[in-house]
Automatic annotation (TrEMBL):
Gene: tpm
Record has Transport as a keyword: no
Native species: Acetobacter orientalis
Alphabetical list of Pfam families matching this protein: TPMT (PF05724)
Subcellular location: Cytoplasm
Entry protein name: Thiopurine S-methyltransferase
Listed NCBIfam families: TMPT_Se_Te (TIGR03840)
Amino acid sequence: MDAVFWHTKWEQNQIGFHSPVPHPFLVSYFARLNLKPGAHVLVPLCGKTLDIHWLLAAGCRVTGIELSPVAVEALFQDLGLVPQIEAVPNAISYTAGTLRVFVGDIFECTPQSIGRVDAVYDRAALIALPEAVRASYAQHLIGLAQNAPQLLTCVEYDQSKRAGPPFAVLAHEVSALYGAAYRVAELEKTLLPEGIKGLCPAYETVWHLSPKGG
Ligand SMILES: C[S@@+](CC[C@H](N)C(=O)[O-])C[C@H]1O[C@@H](n2cnc3c(N)ncnc32)[C@H](O)[C@@H]1O
């Protein structure tokens, strides 16, 4: 999945991953992050998710990272916000109020540009990436967020039945990717009524990653 793949998806509005409501796992389990008012939440590979609307309404400061300017312009428009747009190293920064989104490649973002993060909300980010990239992504995200706790959603299905994205990321892989830095706890596992695009049965899982020693 290179950048062209995702730019094309957004330009052709092929965004089946975009949900018309905030994710029920976010609504149910956000409190587990135990954040203070005004906490800074990093949303990697954010698209134009309504989860950002929900986090802002919950009083969070939000930083998103997203490749597609089409997605980010739609996000601000849906929120009724007019962003200030400026070029920053390796990205374009869109800011309005307590929302900032970097339009660029997450692998080009640095902890210095993001600032101190209190939590990460990863929905359909890790699972958007092929297996060969996921270990680098996980390490990069840990560094970007400086070990901040995470709420992570994944899907589980038989990868031999269908190519991703979304890619299946099973419990053993979550532990392998994050177990050295975090205590890894599965909070819920739900059968997806339509499976993966109606082609194979699938579960959705939500994980709480809490920093070891934190
Ligand atoms: C499956 S979508 C999920 C979007 C959002 N999290 C949601 O739940 O609706 C994955 C998103 O990641 C973006 N993306 C893919 N690779 C990226 C990268 N290297 N850096 C930043 N964004 C990326 C894509 O443009 C796409 O919007």
